[in-house]
């Protein structure tokens, strides 16, 4: 029998009314990268929260063994003492403190008493930065470095506590390809230094490229744990395990007719809201036809979100110039209300912080943009509101106990469906969808794609911003490529490929350098 | 039974505050040997607390927008009271005009503060702290350091008057009894309607027996209350004012678009803005409204005191803020009800009154109120953290 560094036996965890985990058994081999995959709400995060002591001993049943010794963690401190560290999706860094200060936060290097030994802090930090290949000064404030580097600081922080088992929850969700690759290489490096990693990820290609073992969780139970040996594990096999059925086409087919030009933006220029000399968008011109899905591809920070938001009632930027035409007529959108009135909707990339009111229930979130539709003389007809809520809950298959459930309690996919419901209810002609499937599992993605298809079939026009190239290629009729605030390419779907899109970006980079 | 438990749990805070209010009333009723609920004392409690309740309604809206408070309301109330007294006593203005112009001044003050907060981005805490100093100073300036008194009866009627009876039968105020009965009828109709529509959509409702029990209990309280009022001079004019304000503001906050926009803004300003809520306007009008209610409270308080003094209105803001938080408002915004703020205000008012009857000194009263505020909010935080980990 192999000796496991970590064993979780018969773990069962219930929330009021739901069994989140049902008799889960998980074994992790030392010096391995173990990936856990599953749909949102399958129980991955719950399992990791139990392991790291967020849910203390007694709130679940079952046993945890670390290096053969039974552990009953009461809080995170206790699990950390055993060498278990968890890095959540939302990073736990203090943006206004320096890298070195963050690394030793809560674990300050002291000389005598409560006095911080700065020499020790600095030398240790420099050493650790080198170890993970982070090329930054240790005095740089965390708010001044990018997400990828912040992620590394979190890892350094964990390493400084002599971690043995490192848990990463969606570590690459917010990173671009280059940063993701660096991070994954680092994990492989750490493995060689004797650290065991558990990663939770939706990005199956990454999982397959780095993991030694892959465990699939569905509905609170482990479906299978597979050894990631050559050629035996494919994305399709994992997806089949995750959703319980085979998804033949990841992108549903649609029967839509592309019509005349519906929406046009010409010579769109926008300046940074905080710095009126910095131009963020340069002469952008795009158009969308009736029933068309137009993709906006590009790297993080290429200005896609800024473009969509500045079009949507000048919600971003200053000194905005350019024209917007709808059905051939010029329109002026000075605020969000103008945009909504003119039949334009914008679903934000950040559902939780800018898309939903998490403490409000589903029906109130759906009605928020269109309250005048369900009210008379400013008085809201609550029965109508419930009816509308129910209608969309059914139509978009929002999995919830009722329309009175709070948006904050829903899974990512269902939250996105609420956002979609809100905008579909506002009856727009043009929908600007910003990363519509970010952080959503495979099954829910398929459902979101189907909704997008239904919308185009009913004649609506869609601009889809996405960082996932396969999604852009699978869903769009036409693709604009953006880089550094400029449109650097327009490609018809039939001619597009990942290589061509990346070439557009890379060649435009060269031009800028020249 | 499980279902009942979960419905109760969902509204735990609301029920706990009402239960706490009842417990406090019973406690003081016993230790004051029945003085607390004497008809005269009930009228007193109403007029003593009316202005805090009026302020609490406005303050709740401020707090809903994201834990913003208005520290200036006490000073504004004092200032407007002083201005109205100057109008009447020094400028011989008719009372009705003096009151209307004073209210308009309150609205203007609210607009002034709303402008700095909503459009210039000055944090509400700072803008209203400045307002607190400015209007306290101006109060002293226009009163020149002295008090103005006495005020005409038309003016003091709002604060100290009683609605004339329609038919006095054997020393019992008939109007009070009648209004109690009418209020009960409206209440029962409302509850039944509400229950039926909830049932129609298969939402959880209280079991029928509990429902009847609840209606019976509340009807009893309403009628016992109006009966006690009828034994004294009947319905205080200020009670009518407060009840009307509560009804209007409950309606606005729960049933109308502006109310919904206030909650949405408090719940998540970014999401509200991207959903078409005009967030700056919401914030602006909330403070305009606060200015109006502060002016109203100032007029009521000046009427009750029958004089305008340089110090009147001091610390009112603290009582109003405490009422909202005791009544279940969230410090991060988006959560809270008008009724909650009123229950919180009454709880503090009855504590005050009960302790005064017992002869507890004012300094101790302050300290005890402080403990109550801390306990109420600590309980809330505790019960929330518990429901999260279970």
Notes on the structure:
The complex is a heterodimer of chains A (514) and B (390). By secondary structure, chain A is an alpha/beta fold. Chain A has helices spanning 44-51, 76-81, 99-103, 118-132, 147-159, 177-192, 204-210, 235-243, 304-311, 336-341, 351-355, 362-367, 382-395, 412-425, 442-457, 469-475, 498-513, and strands spanning 6-15, 18-28, 33-38, 61-66, 69-71, 84-87, 165-169, 196-200, 213-218, 221-227, 261-271, 279-289, 293-297, 318-326, 329-331, 344-347, 375-376, 379-380, 430-434, 461-465, 478-483, 486-492. In chain A, strands 6-7-8-3-9-10 form a 6-stranded mixed β-sheet, with helices on both faces. In chain A, strands 16-19-20-13-21-22 form a 6-stranded mixed β-sheet, with helices on both faces. In chain A, helix 4 (118-132) packs across helix 5 (147-159). The longest helix of chain A is centred in the middle third of the chain and has 16 residues, at 177-192. Chain A is globular and about 70 Å long. The relative contact order of chain A is 0.10. With 390 residues, chain B is mostly helical. Chain A binds chain B through residues 15-16, 55, 59, 312, 315, 335-337, 339-340, 346, 348, 353-360, 364, 368-369, 371-372, 375, 378-380, 382-383, 386, 390, 402, 404, 422, and chain B through 6, 197, 200-203, 255-258, 260-261, 263-264, 267-268, 270-278, 334-335, 389-390.
């Amino acid at each position: 029998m192999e000796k496991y560094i970590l064993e979780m036996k018969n773990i069962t965890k219930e929330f009021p009314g739901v069994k989140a985990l049902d008799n889960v058994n998980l074994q992790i081999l030392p010096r391995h990268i173990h990936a856990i995959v599953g749909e949102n709400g399958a129980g991955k995060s719950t399992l990791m929260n139990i392991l790291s002591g967020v849910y203390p001993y007694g709130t679940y049943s079952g046993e945890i063994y670390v290096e053969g010794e039974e552990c009953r963690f009461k809080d995170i401190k206790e699990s950390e003492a055993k060498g278990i560290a968890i890095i959540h999706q939302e990073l736990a860094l203090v943006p206004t403190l320096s890298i070195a200060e963050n690394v030793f936060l809560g674990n300050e290097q002291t000389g005598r008493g409560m006095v911080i030994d700065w020499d020790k802090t600095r030398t240790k930090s420099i050493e650790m930065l080198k170890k993970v290949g982070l090329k930054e000064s240790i005095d740089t404030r965390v708010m001044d470095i990018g997400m990828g580097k912040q992620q590394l600081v979190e890892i350094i922080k964990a390493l400084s506590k002599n971690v043995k088992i490192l848990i990463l929850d969606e570590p690459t969700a917010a990173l671009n390809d280059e940063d993701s690759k660096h991070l994954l290489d680092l994990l492989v490096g750490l493995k060689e230094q004797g650290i065991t990693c558990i990663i939770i990820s939706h990005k199956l290609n990454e999982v397959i490229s780095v993991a030694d073992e892959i465990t699939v969780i569905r509905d609170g139970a482990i479906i299978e744990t597979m050894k990631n040996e050559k050629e035996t594990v494919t994305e399709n096999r994992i997806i089949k395990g995750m959703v319980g059925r085979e998804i033949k086409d990841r992108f549903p087919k649609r029967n839509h007719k592309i019509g005349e030009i519906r929406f046009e933006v010409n010579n769109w220029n926008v300046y940074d809201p905080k710095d009126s000399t910095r131009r963020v968008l340069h002469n952008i011109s795009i158009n969308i036809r009736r029933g068309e899905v137009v993709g906006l591809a590009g790297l993080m920070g290429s200005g896609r979100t800024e473009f969509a938001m500045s079009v949507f009632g000048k919600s971003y930027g200053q000194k905005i110039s350019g024209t917007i035409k709808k059905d051939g007529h010029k329109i002026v959108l000075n605020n969000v209300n103008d945009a909504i009135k003119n039949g334009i909707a914008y679903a934000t990339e950040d559902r939780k912080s800018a898309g939903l009111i998490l403490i409000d229930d589903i029906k109130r979130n759906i009605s928020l943009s269109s309250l005048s539709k369900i009210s008379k003389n400013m008085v809201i007809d609550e029965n109508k509101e419930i009816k509308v809520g129910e209608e969309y809950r059914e139509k978009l298959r929002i999995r919830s106990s009722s329309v009175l459930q709070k948006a904050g309690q829903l899974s990512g996919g269902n939250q996105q469906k609420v956002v979609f419901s809100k905008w579909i209810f506002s009856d727009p002609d043009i929908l600007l969808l910003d990363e519509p499937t970010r952080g959503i599992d495979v099954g829910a993605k398929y459902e979101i794609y189907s909704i997008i298809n239904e919308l185009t079939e009913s004649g609506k026009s869609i601009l889809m911003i996405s960082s996932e190239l396969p999604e852009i290629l699978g869903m769009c009729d036409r693709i604009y490529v953006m880089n550094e605030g400029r449109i650097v390419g327009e490609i018809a779907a039939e001619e597009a490929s990942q290589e061509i899109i990346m070439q557009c970006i890379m060649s435009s980079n060269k031009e800028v350098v020249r | 039974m499980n279902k009942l438990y979960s419905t109760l749990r969902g509204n735990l805070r609301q029920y706990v505050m009402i239960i706490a209010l009842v417990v406090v009333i019973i406690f003081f009723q016993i230790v004051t040997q029945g003085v607390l609920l004497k008809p005269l004392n009930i009228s007193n409690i109403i007029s003593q607390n009316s202005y805090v309740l009026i302020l609490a309604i406005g303050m709740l809206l401020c707090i809903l927008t994201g834990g913003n408070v208005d520290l200036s309301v006490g000073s504004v109330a004092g200032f407007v009271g002083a201005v109205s007294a100057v109008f009447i006593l020094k400028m011989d203005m008719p009372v009705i005009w003096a009151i209307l112009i004073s209210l308009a001044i309150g609205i203007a003050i609210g607009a002034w503060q709303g402008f700095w907060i909503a459009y210039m981005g000055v944090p509400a805490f700072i803008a209203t702290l400045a307002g607190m100093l400015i209007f306290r100073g101006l109060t002293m300036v226009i009163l020149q350091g002295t008090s103005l008194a006495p005020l005409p009866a038309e003016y003091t009627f709002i604060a100290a008057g009683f609605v004339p009876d329609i038919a006095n039968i054997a020393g019992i105020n008939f109007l009070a009894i009648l209004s109690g009965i009418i209020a009960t009828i409206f209440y029962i109709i409302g509850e039944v309607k509400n229950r039926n529509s909830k049932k129609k959509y298969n939402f959880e409702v209280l079991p029928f027996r509990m429902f009847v029990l609840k209606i019976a209990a509340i009807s009893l309280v309403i009628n016992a209350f109006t009966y006690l009022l009828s034994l004294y001079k009947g319905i205080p004019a200020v009670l009518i004012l407060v009840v009307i304000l509560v009804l209007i503001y409950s309606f606005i906050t729960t049933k109308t678009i502006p109310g919904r926009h206030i909650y949405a803004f408090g719940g998540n300003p970014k999401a509200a803005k991207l959903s078409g809520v005009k967030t700056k306007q919401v914030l602006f009008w909330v403070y305009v409204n606060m200015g109006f209610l502060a002016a109203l409270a100032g007029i009521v308080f000046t009427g009750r005191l029958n004089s305008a003094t340089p110090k009147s209105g001091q610390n009112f803001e603290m009582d109003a803020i405490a009422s909202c938080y005791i009544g279940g408002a969230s410090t991060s915004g988006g959560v809270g009800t008008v009724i909650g703020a009123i229950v919180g205000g009454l709880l503090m008012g009855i504590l005050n009154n009960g302790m005064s009857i017992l002869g507890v000194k004012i300094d101790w009263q302050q300290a005890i109120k402080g403990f109550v505020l801390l306990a109420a909010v600590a309980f809330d935080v505790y019960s929330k953290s518990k429901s999260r980990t279970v």
